[in-house]
Specification:
Elements lengths: L11 E4 L7 E3 H21 L10 H21 L7 H16 L13 H23 L1 H6 L9 H36 L4 H32 L4
Antiparallel strand pairs: 1-2
Helix pairs in contact: 1-3, 2-7, 3-7, 4-6, 4-7, 6-7
Length: about 230
């Protein structure tokens, strides 16, 4: 492929000669590699947990991270965070680590791909009714779609779909805009701009991970706290 590769989707690693649509691009490779890092990293950090007063530094970091996420979930939902922590915490860690690894040469964050952000938003779209039904029951959850009047049903359904689209496009747009701006500025001032843009990109990546996780929790909380 000629030209500058902006997204990992454009970096095709393998393509079937029989079925050209069947391909493995860098987005898939980096995503699966990222999931492997998270799984192995989680196992390494949690395999020797202790309740002693002197705890390993990795356990201390883990406890700070989990406590911070629990506090944020409780603040947003005003509910017990234990139910939502595995899902919302995984979303945050996946996006945050994906963006932090941008410092690795040759790595392109999968969060800069619309397919990845759409998949993450779809997970939220599916999780909202699951948590809502688990909290209120099937009938209780569906009632919110016909409030204050059944005439609001199509608008409420459209609202659910549109906010899922907004989640995907927001994360994708913010990550892509940073990549494009960095590529433009590097062409003009190639010495110091890359370092500054990389620092700014890491900060932006952390903010986007936080915003995505908070919005996911807001949507879930609105489904689980709807009036019966």
């Amino acid at each position: 492929m000629s030209g500058v590769q902006i997204t990992a989707d454009q970096w095709v690693i393998w393509q079937s000669e029989t079925w050209p649509m069947v391909r493995i691009n860098a987005t898939l490779v980096f995503t699966w590699g990222l999931m492997l890092i998270l799984v192995v990293g989680s196992w390494l950090v949690t395999r020797r947990l202790t309740s002693d007063t002197a705890i390993p530094r990795w356990q201390n970091l883990l406890e700070v991270l989990v406590t911070g996420m629990r506090d944020q979930i409780r603040e947003v939902s005003h509910q017990d965070p234990g139910v939502y922590l595995p899902f919302v915490g995984t979303l945050f860690l996946f996006i945050a680590v994906a963006n932090l690894l941008a410092i690795v040469p040759g790595y392109i964050p999968p969060t800069g791909s619309l397919s990845t952000t759409a998949a993450l938003a779809t997970c939220v779209f599916v999780a909202v009714p699951i948590f809502g039904i688990a909290s209120q029951g099937f009938g209780g959850y569906l009632k919110q779609y016909v409030r204050p009047t059944p005439l609001m049903l199509p608008f409420n359904v459209i609202g659910e779909l549109s906010r899922t689209l907004a989640l995907a496009v927001r994360l994708y747009g913010n990550m892509m805009s940073g990549t494009v701006i960095a590529a433009i500025l590097i062409g003009f001032v190639p010495l110091f701009i890359p370092i500054l843009m990389q620092i700014l990109g890491l900060l932006t990546g952390m903010i986007q991970a936080y915003i995505f996780a908070v919005l996911a929790m807001v949507y879930i909380a609105s489904a689980t706290r709807a009036a019966k």
